[in-house]
Amino acid sequence: MAKRIDVSDLDIYYGNFKAVEGVNISIEPRSITALIGPSGCGKSTFLRSLNRMHEVVPGARIEGKVVIDGQDLYGSDVDPVDVRRQIGMVFQRPNPFPTMSIYDNVVAGVRLNSTKLKRAALDELVERSLRAANLWTEVKDRLDRPGAGLSGGQQQRLCIARAIAVEPEVLLMDEPCSALDPISTLAIEDLMTQLKERFTIVIVTHNMQQAARVSEFTGFFNLAGVGQPGRLVEFNPTEKIFSNPDQKSTEDYISGRFG
Amino acid sequence: MTTTSAPPPQPEPKRRVGDRVFAGSAKGAGILILVVLAGVAVFLVTEAWPAFTASPADLAGGEGVLSYVAPLVFGTLLAAVIALLIATPLAVAIALFITYYVPRRLAAGLGYVVDLLAAIPSIVYGFWGIAALAPALVPFYGWAERNLGFIPFFAGPASATGRTMLTAGLVLAVMILPIISAISREVFSQAPLLHREAALALGATRWEMITMAVLPYGKSGIIGGAMLGLGRALGETLAIALVLSISGGISFNLISNTNPGTIAANIALQFPESTGLDVNTLIASGLVLFVITLAVNMLARWVVNRRADFSGAN
Fold first, then answer.
1. Spatial distance between the Cα atoms of B152 and A143, rounded to a whole number of angstroms
2. In a domain, B28, yes or no
3. B119 is in which domain, residue-wise?
4. Mean pLDDT score across all residues of chain B
5. How many domains does chain B have?
6. Does ipTM top 0.90?
7. Is B202 an 8 Å CB contact of chain A?
8. A5-96+170-254: what fold?
9. Model pLDDT, residue A214
10. Hey, where are the domains in chain A?
Protein backbone atom coordinates (compact mmCIF):
# COMPACT_ATOMS: atom_id res chain seq x y z
CA MET A 1 0.00 0.00 0.00
CA ALA A 2 2.44 2.65 1.15
CA LYS A 3 4.89 3.72 -1.48
CA ARG A 4 8.14 5.55 -1.79
CA ILE A 5 8.32 8.94 -3.53
CA ASP A 6 11.43 10.06 -5.38
CA VAL A 7 11.62 13.63 -6.54
CA SER A 8 14.53 14.78 -8.68
CA ASP A 9 15.42 18.27 -9.90
CA LEU A 10 11.87 19.50 -9.54
CA ASP A 11 11.08 23.06 -10.63
CA ILE A 12 7.51 24.31 -10.33
CA TYR A 13 6.21 27.25 -12.35
CA TYR A 14 3.04 29.29 -12.28
CA GLY A 15 3.09 30.73 -15.78
CA ASN A 16 6.49 32.37 -16.05
CA PHE A 17 6.96 32.63 -12.32
CA LYS A 18 9.25 30.01 -10.86
CA ALA A 19 7.79 29.15 -7.47
CA VAL A 20 9.99 26.24 -6.44
CA GLU A 21 13.43 25.32 -7.66
CA GLY A 22 15.64 22.27 -7.68
CA VAL A 23 13.98 19.98 -5.17
CA ASN A 24 15.60 16.58 -4.67
CA ILE A 25 14.01 14.41 -2.04
CA SER A 26 13.27 10.80 -1.27
CA ILE A 27 10.26 10.19 0.89
CA GLU A 28 10.27 6.92 2.78
CA PRO A 29 7.21 4.65 2.79
CA ARG A 30 5.34 4.12 6.06
CA SER A 31 6.76 7.21 7.63
CA ILE A 32 5.75 10.78 8.26
CA THR A 33 7.72 13.43 6.46
CA ALA A 34 7.17 16.99 7.63
CA LEU A 35 7.82 20.06 5.51
CA ILE A 36 8.45 23.28 7.39
CA GLY A 37 9.41 26.78 6.41
CA PRO A 38 8.15 30.35 6.30
CA SER A 39 4.95 31.32 4.47
CA GLY A 40 5.25 31.61 0.72
CA CYS A 41 8.35 29.47 0.48
CA GLY A 42 6.72 26.91 -1.79
CA LYS A 43 6.20 24.00 0.57
CA SER A 44 2.45 23.82 -0.09
CA THR A 45 3.09 24.17 -3.81
CA PHE A 46 5.60 21.34 -3.60
CA LEU A 47 3.13 19.20 -1.65
CA ARG A 48 0.46 19.83 -4.24
CA SER A 49 2.80 18.88 -7.05
CA LEU A 50 2.97 15.39 -5.52
CA ASN A 51 -0.61 14.67 -6.56
CA ARG A 52 -0.80 17.24 -9.33
CA MET A 53 -3.28 19.38 -7.40
CA HIS A 54 -1.24 22.48 -8.24
CA GLU A 55 -2.53 22.09 -11.79
CA VAL A 56 -5.87 23.45 -10.58
CA VAL A 57 -4.20 26.84 -11.04
CA PRO A 58 -4.13 27.65 -14.76
CA GLY A 59 -0.61 27.87 -16.16
CA ALA A 60 0.98 25.70 -13.50
CA ARG A 61 3.62 23.26 -14.75
CA ILE A 62 6.71 21.43 -13.57
CA GLU A 63 10.10 20.46 -14.82
CA GLY A 64 11.88 17.48 -13.34
CA LYS A 65 10.64 14.13 -12.14
CA VAL A 66 8.29 12.80 -9.51
CA VAL A 67 8.41 9.02 -9.33
CA ILE A 68 6.27 6.86 -7.07
CA ASP A 69 7.51 3.28 -6.89
CA GLY A 70 8.88 3.50 -10.40
CA GLN A 71 5.85 5.23 -11.90
CA ASP A 72 6.46 8.71 -13.30
CA LEU A 73 3.57 10.89 -12.13
CA TYR A 74 4.09 13.32 -14.97
CA GLY A 75 4.43 10.78 -17.75
CA SER A 76 2.67 11.82 -20.93
CA ASP A 77 0.17 8.97 -20.62
CA VAL A 78 -0.64 9.64 -16.97
CA ASP A 79 -4.03 11.16 -16.18
CA PRO A 80 -3.92 13.53 -13.18
CA VAL A 81 -7.28 12.11 -12.13
CA ASP A 82 -5.68 8.68 -11.68
CA VAL A 83 -2.78 10.20 -9.77
CA ARG A 84 -5.15 11.82 -7.30
CA ARG A 85 -6.99 8.56 -6.77
CA GLN A 86 -3.73 7.02 -5.60
CA ILE A 87 -2.54 9.98 -3.59
CA GLY A 88 -5.05 11.40 -1.16
CA MET A 89 -5.00 14.89 0.23
CA VAL A 90 -6.24 16.63 3.38
CA PHE A 91 -6.51 20.40 3.29
CA GLN A 92 -5.83 23.24 5.67
CA ARG A 93 -9.49 24.00 6.26
CA PRO A 94 -11.79 21.04 6.83
CA ASN A 95 -13.88 20.68 3.68
CA PRO A 96 -16.52 17.98 3.94
CA PHE A 97 -19.11 18.33 1.19
CA PRO A 98 -21.79 20.48 2.83
CA THR A 99 -24.69 18.93 0.94
CA MET A 100 -23.72 15.36 1.82
CA SER A 101 -24.29 13.35 4.97
CA ILE A 102 -21.39 12.03 7.01
CA TYR A 103 -21.91 8.63 5.41
CA ASP A 104 -21.94 10.02 1.87
CA ASN A 105 -18.86 12.09 2.56
CA VAL A 106 -16.88 9.01 3.54
CA VAL A 107 -17.90 7.05 0.45
CA ALA A 108 -17.69 10.02 -1.96
CA GLY A 109 -14.31 8.96 -3.31
CA VAL A 110 -15.24 5.29 -3.54
CA ARG A 111 -18.34 6.15 -5.53
CA LEU A 112 -16.13 8.09 -7.94
CA ASN A 113 -14.04 5.02 -8.60
CA SER A 114 -17.27 3.63 -10.03
CA THR A 115 -16.86 0.29 -8.36
CA LYS A 116 -20.42 -0.67 -7.55
CA LEU A 117 -20.25 -1.84 -3.98
CA LYS A 118 -23.11 -3.51 -2.20
CA ARG A 119 -24.75 -1.56 0.59
CA ALA A 120 -23.30 -3.91 3.20
CA ALA A 121 -19.81 -3.48 1.80
CA LEU A 122 -20.22 0.30 1.84
CA ASP A 123 -21.49 0.19 5.43
CA GLU A 124 -18.46 -1.84 6.37
CA LEU A 125 -16.13 0.58 4.55
CA VAL A 126 -17.69 3.58 6.29
CA GLU A 127 -17.24 1.99 9.69
CA ARG A 128 -13.68 0.92 8.93
CA SER A 129 -12.69 4.35 7.60
CA LEU A 130 -14.33 6.25 10.44
CA ARG A 131 -12.74 3.94 13.00
CA ALA A 132 -9.36 4.47 11.36
CA ALA A 133 -9.98 8.22 11.61
CA ASN A 134 -10.92 7.89 15.31
CA LEU A 135 -14.33 9.34 14.56
CA TRP A 136 -16.60 6.31 14.61
CA THR A 137 -17.77 6.45 18.22
CA GLU A 138 -18.58 10.14 17.93
CA VAL A 139 -20.71 9.93 14.80
CA LYS A 140 -21.98 6.35 14.54
CA ASP A 141 -25.50 7.39 15.61
CA ARG A 142 -25.80 10.25 13.15
CA LEU A 143 -24.26 9.04 9.92
CA ASP A 144 -27.16 10.52 7.96
CA ARG A 145 -26.62 14.01 9.39
CA PRO A 146 -24.74 16.67 7.35
CA GLY A 147 -20.98 16.53 7.70
CA ALA A 148 -20.86 20.30 8.03
CA GLY A 149 -22.68 20.04 11.38
CA LEU A 150 -19.62 18.55 13.11
CA SER A 151 -17.00 20.52 15.01
CA GLY A 152 -13.90 21.66 13.15
CA GLY A 153 -11.73 18.84 14.50
CA GLN A 154 -14.39 16.26 13.75
CA GLN A 155 -14.79 17.66 10.24
CA GLN A 156 -11.07 17.34 9.66
CA ARG A 157 -11.11 13.72 10.85
CA LEU A 158 -14.09 13.17 8.55
CA CYS A 159 -11.97 14.51 5.68
CA ILE A 160 -9.19 12.12 6.67
CA ALA A 161 -11.71 9.26 6.74
CA ARG A 162 -12.87 10.31 3.27
CA ALA A 163 -9.30 10.39 2.00
CA ILE A 164 -8.31 6.98 3.40
CA ALA A 165 -11.57 5.29 2.38
CA VAL A 166 -10.20 4.97 -1.16
CA GLU A 167 -7.06 3.25 0.20
CA PRO A 168 -4.55 5.68 -1.30
CA GLU A 169 -0.85 4.90 -1.37
CA VAL A 170 0.18 8.28 -0.06
CA LEU A 171 -1.59 10.79 2.15
CA LEU A 172 -0.69 14.45 1.72
CA MET A 173 -1.67 16.85 4.47
CA ASP A 174 -1.52 20.60 3.93
CA GLU A 175 -1.43 22.21 7.39
CA PRO A 176 -4.22 19.93 8.57
CA CYS A 177 -4.27 21.32 12.11
CA SER A 178 -3.83 25.03 11.56
CA ALA A 179 -7.56 25.71 11.84
CA LEU A 180 -7.99 23.49 14.90
CA ASP A 181 -7.72 23.88 18.67
CA PRO A 182 -4.93 22.07 20.60
CA ILE A 183 -7.15 19.15 21.68
CA SER A 184 -8.33 18.47 18.13
CA THR A 185 -4.74 18.91 16.95
CA LEU A 186 -3.60 16.24 19.37
CA ALA A 187 -6.33 13.91 18.11
CA ILE A 188 -5.16 14.39 14.52
CA GLU A 189 -1.53 13.84 15.49
CA ASP A 190 -2.39 10.59 17.28
CA LEU A 191 -4.28 9.59 14.18
CA MET A 192 -1.30 10.32 11.96
CA THR A 193 0.99 8.10 13.98
CA GLN A 194 -1.54 5.28 13.60
CA LEU A 195 -2.00 5.90 9.89
CA LYS A 196 1.68 5.79 9.08
CA GLU A 197 1.56 2.03 9.65
CA ARG A 198 -0.41 1.86 6.40
CA PHE A 199 0.33 5.00 4.43
CA THR A 200 3.18 7.22 3.39
CA ILE A 201 2.35 10.58 4.93
CA VAL A 202 3.69 13.98 3.92
CA ILE A 203 2.60 16.90 6.05
CA VAL A 204 3.13 20.63 5.66
CA THR A 205 3.06 22.41 8.98
CA HIS A 206 3.85 25.76 10.51
CA ASN A 207 3.94 24.20 13.93
CA MET A 208 7.48 23.12 14.61
CA GLN A 209 6.57 21.21 17.75
CA GLN A 210 4.16 19.27 15.61
CA ALA A 211 6.86 18.43 13.09
CA ALA A 212 9.14 17.37 15.95
CA ARG A 213 6.42 15.27 17.62
CA VAL A 214 5.08 13.30 14.69
CA SER A 215 7.58 13.10 11.88
CA GLU A 216 10.57 10.87 11.14
CA PHE A 217 11.98 13.16 8.50
CA THR A 218 11.81 16.90 8.11
CA GLY A 219 12.44 19.12 5.13
CA PHE A 220 13.11 22.82 5.56
CA PHE A 221 12.04 25.09 2.71
CA ASN A 222 13.21 28.67 2.39
CA LEU A 223 13.39 31.53 -0.08
CA ALA A 224 16.76 32.62 -1.33
CA GLY A 225 15.39 36.17 -1.30
CA VAL A 226 12.33 38.24 -2.16
CA GLY A 227 10.99 37.23 -5.59
CA GLN A 228 13.29 34.21 -5.69
CA PRO A 229 11.94 30.67 -5.98
CA GLY A 230 11.63 28.53 -2.87
CA ARG A 231 14.23 25.82 -2.28
CA LEU A 232 14.53 22.75 -0.14
CA VAL A 233 17.35 23.92 2.11
CA GLU A 234 17.78 20.83 4.21
CA PHE A 235 16.26 17.38 4.41
CA ASN A 236 17.28 15.14 7.30
CA PRO A 237 15.90 12.89 10.02
CA THR A 238 13.73 15.02 12.29
CA GLU A 239 15.97 14.45 15.34
CA LYS A 240 18.94 15.82 13.49
CA ILE A 241 17.07 18.83 12.12
CA PHE A 242 15.91 19.81 15.58
CA SER A 243 19.16 19.10 17.42
CA ASN A 244 22.01 19.61 15.03
CA PRO A 245 20.95 20.86 11.62
CA ASP A 246 23.45 21.03 8.79
CA GLN A 247 22.46 24.48 7.69
CA LYS A 248 22.70 27.72 9.60
CA SER A 249 19.39 29.00 8.18
CA THR A 250 17.58 25.88 9.40
CA GLU A 251 18.88 26.44 12.89
CA ASP A 252 17.91 30.12 12.76
CA TYR A 253 14.40 29.29 11.64
CA ILE A 254 13.87 26.57 14.22
CA SER A 255 15.20 28.61 17.09
CA GLY A 256 13.13 31.63 16.08
CA ARG A 257 16.08 33.76 15.00
CA PHE A 258 14.65 33.99 11.55
CA GLY A 259 14.80 37.04 9.36
CA MET B 1 -25.63 70.24 49.00
CA THR B 2 -23.85 69.35 45.89
CA THR B 3 -24.77 70.74 42.66
CA THR B 4 -25.02 68.23 39.93
CA SER B 5 -23.37 69.65 36.98
CA ALA B 6 -25.11 69.18 33.71
CA PRO B 7 -23.83 66.15 31.86
CA PRO B 8 -21.22 67.12 29.35
CA PRO B 9 -22.95 67.80 26.05
CA GLN B 10 -22.87 64.85 23.70
CA PRO B 11 -20.69 65.68 20.77
CA GLU B 12 -23.11 66.38 17.97
CA PRO B 13 -22.63 63.80 15.26
CA LYS B 14 -21.41 65.78 12.37
CA ARG B 15 -24.04 65.80 9.65
CA ARG B 16 -22.64 66.45 6.28
CA VAL B 17 -24.81 67.85 3.50
CA GLY B 18 -23.87 65.08 1.09
CA ASP B 19 -24.95 62.36 3.54
CA ARG B 20 -28.30 64.02 4.12
CA VAL B 21 -28.98 64.54 0.43
CA PHE B 22 -28.07 60.94 -0.34
CA ALA B 23 -30.12 59.49 2.54
CA GLY B 24 -33.09 61.62 1.55
CA SER B 25 -33.00 60.77 -2.12
CA ALA B 26 -32.53 57.06 -1.44
CA LYS B 27 -35.47 57.08 0.96
CA GLY B 28 -37.54 59.03 -1.55
CA ALA B 29 -36.76 56.61 -4.37
CA GLY B 30 -37.69 53.65 -2.19
CA ILE B 31 -40.99 55.20 -1.20
CA LEU B 32 -41.72 56.16 -4.81
CA ILE B 33 -41.42 52.52 -5.91
CA LEU B 34 -43.91 51.43 -3.27
CA VAL B 35 -46.29 54.24 -4.23
CA VAL B 36 -46.14 53.32 -7.91
CA LEU B 37 -46.69 49.64 -7.15
CA ALA B 38 -49.63 50.41 -4.90
CA GLY B 39 -51.00 52.79 -7.54
CA VAL B 40 -50.88 50.10 -10.20
CA ALA B 41 -52.57 47.61 -7.90
CA VAL B 42 -55.31 50.08 -6.98
CA PHE B 43 -55.85 50.95 -10.63
CA LEU B 44 -56.11 47.30 -11.63
CA VAL B 45 -58.55 46.46 -8.87
CA THR B 46 -60.86 49.47 -9.37
CA GLU B 47 -60.88 49.15 -13.15
CA ALA B 48 -61.36 45.39 -13.04
CA TRP B 49 -64.13 45.55 -10.48
CA PRO B 50 -66.98 46.25 -12.96
CA ALA B 51 -66.07 43.10 -14.88
CA PHE B 52 -66.44 41.02 -11.74
CA THR B 53 -69.78 42.56 -10.74
CA ALA B 54 -71.42 42.79 -14.19
CA SER B 55 -73.85 40.12 -15.30
CA PRO B 56 -71.96 37.37 -17.16
CA ALA B 57 -74.08 37.80 -20.30
CA ASP B 58 -72.74 41.31 -20.85
CA LEU B 59 -69.13 40.16 -21.04
CA ALA B 60 -67.13 38.92 -23.98
CA GLY B 61 -67.82 35.21 -24.26
CA GLY B 62 -70.98 35.64 -22.24
CA GLU B 63 -70.00 33.34 -19.38
CA GLY B 64 -68.44 35.60 -16.81
CA VAL B 65 -64.99 36.93 -16.25
CA LEU B 66 -63.46 33.76 -14.83
CA SER B 67 -64.34 31.56 -17.78
CA TYR B 68 -63.02 34.35 -20.01
CA VAL B 69 -59.71 34.49 -18.22
CA ALA B 70 -59.26 30.74 -17.62
CA PRO B 71 -58.07 29.76 -21.14
CA LEU B 72 -55.81 32.80 -21.19
CA VAL B 73 -54.24 31.79 -17.89
CA PHE B 74 -53.84 28.30 -19.30
CA GLY B 75 -52.18 29.60 -22.47
CA THR B 76 -49.91 31.91 -20.48
CA LEU B 77 -48.76 29.11 -18.20
CA LEU B 78 -48.38 26.59 -21.04
CA ALA B 79 -46.16 28.87 -23.13
CA ALA B 80 -44.11 29.82 -20.07
CA VAL B 81 -43.66 26.24 -18.91
CA ILE B 82 -42.54 25.12 -22.38
CA ALA B 83 -40.05 27.97 -22.43
CA LEU B 84 -38.80 27.05 -18.97
CA LEU B 85 -38.41 23.35 -19.76
CA ILE B 86 -36.32 24.16 -22.81
CA ALA B 87 -34.35 27.11 -21.47
CA THR B 88 -33.35 25.87 -18.01
CA PRO B 89 -31.19 22.86 -18.97
CA LEU B 90 -29.70 24.82 -21.85
CA ALA B 91 -28.93 27.83 -19.64
CA VAL B 92 -27.37 25.65 -16.95
CA ALA B 93 -25.24 23.90 -19.57
CA ILE B 94 -24.12 27.26 -20.98
CA ALA B 95 -23.34 28.58 -17.51
CA LEU B 96 -21.29 25.48 -16.65
CA PHE B 97 -19.48 25.66 -19.95
CA ILE B 98 -18.58 29.31 -19.43
CA THR B 99 -17.55 28.96 -15.79
CA TYR B 100 -15.66 25.65 -15.89
CA TYR B 101 -14.75 24.68 -19.42
CA VAL B 102 -13.82 27.80 -21.36
CA PRO B 103 -10.41 29.42 -20.81
CA ARG B 104 -10.84 32.40 -18.50
CA ARG B 105 -10.02 35.01 -21.13
CA LEU B 106 -12.75 33.73 -23.45
CA ALA B 107 -15.26 33.26 -20.64
CA ALA B 108 -15.93 36.95 -20.04
CA GLY B 109 -16.57 37.58 -23.72
CA LEU B 110 -18.83 34.56 -24.09
CA GLY B 111 -20.82 35.51 -21.01
CA TYR B 112 -21.24 38.97 -22.44
CA VAL B 113 -22.57 37.60 -25.72
CA VAL B 114 -25.15 35.47 -23.90
CA ASP B 115 -26.14 38.48 -21.81
CA LEU B 116 -26.61 40.43 -25.04
CA LEU B 117 -29.54 38.16 -25.87
CA ALA B 118 -31.40 40.00 -23.12
CA ALA B 119 -30.81 43.31 -24.86
CA ILE B 120 -32.64 42.34 -28.05
CA PRO B 121 -36.10 44.00 -28.09
CA SER B 122 -38.98 41.56 -27.84
CA ILE B 123 -40.49 42.84 -31.09
CA VAL B 124 -37.36 41.62 -32.86
CA TYR B 125 -37.81 38.21 -31.27
CA GLY B 126 -41.38 38.28 -32.53
CA PHE B 127 -40.26 39.02 -36.08
CA TRP B 128 -37.60 36.37 -35.90
CA GLY B 129 -40.15 33.86 -34.62
CA ILE B 130 -42.71 34.54 -37.32
CA ALA B 131 -40.34 35.08 -40.23
CA ALA B 132 -37.57 32.59 -39.57
CA LEU B 133 -38.28 30.10 -36.80
CA ALA B 134 -41.92 29.28 -37.59
CA PRO B 135 -41.41 28.39 -41.30
CA ALA B 136 -38.30 26.43 -40.41
CA LEU B 137 -40.27 24.31 -37.95
CA VAL B 138 -43.14 23.44 -40.31
CA PRO B 139 -41.49 20.25 -41.65
CA PHE B 140 -40.76 19.13 -38.11
CA TYR B 141 -44.39 19.63 -37.10
CA GLY B 142 -45.52 17.51 -40.05
CA TRP B 143 -43.08 14.80 -39.02
CA ALA B 144 -44.16 15.01 -35.39
CA GLU B 145 -47.81 14.65 -36.34
CA ARG B 146 -47.13 11.55 -38.42
CA ASN B 147 -44.76 9.83 -36.02
CA LEU B 148 -45.55 11.18 -32.57
CA GLY B 149 -49.27 11.79 -33.09
CA PHE B 150 -50.17 9.33 -30.33
CA ILE B 151 -48.81 11.82 -27.79
CA PRO B 152 -51.55 14.41 -27.13
CA PHE B 153 -48.99 17.24 -27.46
CA PHE B 154 -48.41 16.30 -31.11
CA ALA B 155 -51.94 15.26 -32.08
CA GLY B 156 -52.12 17.77 -34.93
CA PRO B 157 -53.38 18.73 -37.42
CA ALA B 158 -49.93 20.22 -37.89
CA SER B 159 -49.87 23.92 -38.56
CA ALA B 160 -48.91 24.93 -42.09
CA THR B 161 -47.56 28.27 -40.90
CA GLY B 162 -45.64 27.04 -37.91
CA ARG B 163 -47.27 29.63 -35.65
CA THR B 164 -47.91 27.14 -32.89
CA MET B 165 -47.68 27.01 -29.13
CA LEU B 166 -44.36 25.17 -29.42
CA THR B 167 -42.90 27.89 -31.65
CA ALA B 168 -44.05 30.54 -29.17
CA GLY B 169 -42.52 28.54 -26.33
CA LEU B 170 -39.22 28.27 -28.23
CA VAL B 171 -39.09 32.02 -28.85
CA LEU B 172 -39.79 32.63 -25.16
CA ALA B 173 -37.08 30.10 -24.27
CA VAL B 174 -34.48 32.10 -26.18
CA MET B 175 -35.69 35.27 -24.46
CA ILE B 176 -35.38 33.94 -20.92
CA LEU B 177 -32.13 32.06 -21.58
CA PRO B 178 -29.87 35.00 -20.64
CA ILE B 179 -31.61 35.59 -17.30
CA ILE B 180 -31.28 32.00 -16.18
CA SER B 181 -27.75 31.56 -17.45
CA ALA B 182 -26.55 34.83 -15.91
CA ILE B 183 -27.79 33.87 -12.45
CA SER B 184 -26.55 30.28 -12.79
CA ARG B 185 -23.16 31.55 -13.90
CA GLU B 186 -23.00 33.80 -10.87
CA VAL B 187 -23.70 31.01 -8.37
CA PHE B 188 -21.51 28.47 -10.17
CA SER B 189 -18.54 30.80 -10.09
CA GLN B 190 -19.06 31.23 -6.35
CA ALA B 191 -18.96 27.50 -5.60
CA PRO B 192 -16.26 27.36 -2.92
CA LEU B 193 -12.79 26.41 -4.12
CA LEU B 194 -12.48 24.44 -0.88
CA HIS B 195 -15.08 21.93 -1.96
CA ARG B 196 -14.07 21.86 -5.59
CA GLU B 197 -10.53 20.98 -4.50
CA ALA B 198 -11.91 18.37 -2.13
CA ALA B 199 -13.60 16.68 -5.07
CA LEU B 200 -10.55 16.95 -7.33
CA ALA B 201 -8.25 15.59 -4.64
CA LEU B 202 -10.44 12.49 -4.39
CA GLY B 203 -9.76 11.88 -8.06
CA ALA B 204 -12.87 13.46 -9.52
CA THR B 205 -12.91 14.38 -13.18
CA ARG B 206 -14.07 17.87 -14.01
CA TRP B 207 -17.62 16.68 -14.57
CA GLU B 208 -17.61 14.69 -11.32
CA MET B 209 -16.26 17.75 -9.53
CA ILE B 210 -19.21 19.73 -10.94
CA THR B 211 -21.78 17.17 -9.81
CA MET B 212 -20.20 16.84 -6.35
CA ALA B 213 -19.33 20.40 -5.47
CA VAL B 214 -20.85 22.87 -7.92
CA LEU B 215 -24.38 21.74 -8.79
CA PRO B 216 -25.47 20.96 -5.22
CA TYR B 217 -24.18 24.37 -4.18
CA GLY B 218 -25.85 26.15 -7.10
CA LYS B 219 -29.17 24.32 -7.00
CA SER B 220 -31.18 27.04 -5.32
CA GLY B 221 -29.56 29.64 -7.58
CA ILE B 222 -30.67 27.71 -10.66
CA ILE B 223 -34.20 27.46 -9.26
CA GLY B 224 -34.24 31.18 -8.48
CA GLY B 225 -32.98 32.05 -11.96
CA ALA B 226 -35.57 29.79 -13.55
CA MET B 227 -38.31 31.50 -11.53
CA LEU B 228 -37.15 34.93 -12.64
CA GLY B 229 -37.14 33.64 -16.23
CA LEU B 230 -40.64 32.30 -15.69
CA GLY B 231 -41.68 35.75 -14.53
CA ARG B 232 -40.46 37.25 -17.77
CA ALA B 233 -42.04 34.52 -19.89
CA LEU B 234 -45.40 35.04 -18.21
CA GLY B 235 -45.44 38.74 -18.97
CA GLU B 236 -44.06 38.59 -22.49
CA THR B 237 -46.49 40.27 -24.89
CA LEU B 238 -45.24 41.24 -28.31
CA ALA B 239 -43.38 38.13 -29.30
CA ILE B 240 -46.39 35.98 -28.43
CA ALA B 241 -48.86 38.33 -30.08
CA LEU B 242 -46.84 38.15 -33.30
CA VAL B 243 -45.92 34.49 -33.31
CA LEU B 244 -48.88 32.64 -31.90
CA SER B 245 -51.94 31.86 -34.00
CA ILE B 246 -54.68 32.33 -31.41
CA SER B 247 -58.12 30.86 -31.50
CA GLY B 248 -58.99 30.56 -27.82
CA GLY B 249 -60.02 27.50 -25.86
CA ILE B 250 -57.88 25.13 -23.84
CA SER B 251 -55.74 22.65 -25.72
CA PHE B 252 -52.56 20.73 -25.00
CA ASN B 253 -51.93 20.38 -28.71
CA LEU B 254 -48.60 22.11 -29.27
CA ILE B 255 -48.32 21.93 -33.06
CA SER B 256 -51.71 23.04 -34.40
CA ASN B 257 -53.14 26.35 -35.54
CA THR B 258 -55.71 26.46 -32.76
CA ASN B 259 -54.03 27.74 -29.63
CA PRO B 260 -55.13 29.39 -26.45
CA GLY B 261 -53.96 33.00 -26.22
CA THR B 262 -51.90 34.40 -23.39
CA ILE B 263 -53.09 37.15 -21.08
CA ALA B 264 -50.56 39.74 -22.15
CA ALA B 265 -50.86 39.04 -25.88
CA ASN B 266 -54.64 39.02 -25.63
CA ILE B 267 -54.67 42.44 -24.00
CA ALA B 268 -52.35 43.84 -26.66
CA LEU B 269 -54.45 42.45 -29.48
CA GLN B 270 -57.91 43.27 -28.10
CA PHE B 271 -57.39 46.55 -26.31
CA PRO B 272 -57.40 48.95 -29.29
CA GLU B 273 -60.90 47.83 -30.34
CA SER B 274 -62.43 47.52 -26.90
CA THR B 275 -64.82 49.87 -25.14
CA GLY B 276 -66.80 49.89 -21.92
CA LEU B 277 -67.07 46.60 -20.10
CA ASP B 278 -64.68 44.84 -22.49
CA VAL B 279 -61.92 47.12 -21.26
CA ASN B 280 -62.75 46.21 -17.67
CA THR B 281 -62.60 42.53 -18.58
CA LEU B 282 -59.19 42.93 -20.17
CA ILE B 283 -57.97 44.81 -17.11
CA ALA B 284 -59.35 42.02 -14.93
CA SER B 285 -57.21 39.56 -16.90
CA GLY B 286 -54.30 41.94 -16.36
CA LEU B 287 -54.96 41.81 -12.64
CA VAL B 288 -54.78 38.02 -12.75
CA LEU B 289 -51.44 38.24 -14.59
CA PHE B 290 -50.20 40.76 -12.03
CA VAL B 291 -51.04 38.36 -9.20
CA ILE B 292 -49.43 35.37 -10.96
CA THR B 293 -46.24 37.27 -11.77
CA LEU B 294 -46.04 38.69 -8.27
CA ALA B 295 -46.44 35.22 -6.80
CA VAL B 296 -43.76 33.75 -9.08
CA ASN B 297 -41.32 36.55 -8.31
CA MET B 298 -41.90 36.28 -4.58
CA LEU B 299 -41.35 32.55 -4.78
CA ALA B 300 -38.14 33.16 -6.73
CA ARG B 301 -36.87 35.67 -4.16
CA TRP B 302 -37.69 33.29 -1.38
CA VAL B 303 -35.85 30.43 -3.08
CA VAL B 304 -32.81 32.60 -3.86
CA ASN B 305 -32.66 33.99 -0.33
CA ARG B 306 -32.69 30.54 1.16
CA ARG B 307 -29.14 30.34 -0.13
CA ALA B 308 -28.16 32.57 2.77
CA ASP B 309 -28.67 29.68 5.20
CA PHE B 310 -26.82 27.34 2.92
CA SER B 311 -23.97 25.79 4.83
CA GLY B 312 -21.58 26.03 1.88
CA ALA B 313 -19.37 28.62 3.53
CA ASN B 314 -18.97 27.00 6.92
1. 46
2. no
3. 41-51+60-313
4. 86
5. 1
6. no
7. yes
8. Rossmann fold (3.40.50)
9. 92
10. 5-96+170-254
